[in-house]
Amino acid sequence: VAACRAVAAACGLRVDDAMVLNDSNRLAVHLRPCDVLARVAPRARQNGANFEIEVARRLAETGAPLAMLDPRVEPRVYEQAQRKH
Question: What element of type H or E holds 19?
């Protein structure tokens, strides 16, 4: 969740609250009030992330009913440095 908040802030999006929607092999987090859904995965599980972005882009071009990629943020995989414990 901290990584979502940090990347969103770096992209100029305001985040006051982050709610976890799904916690499995990837984390889905709803960021508010910027109203963004972020997906987070450890580096070892990031395979397919770029493919998912491309699929979303192509589906949006067809007018398919889905959540759109946010135009305020470049559609790419963002990496956040791991914190040392």
Answer: strand 15-23
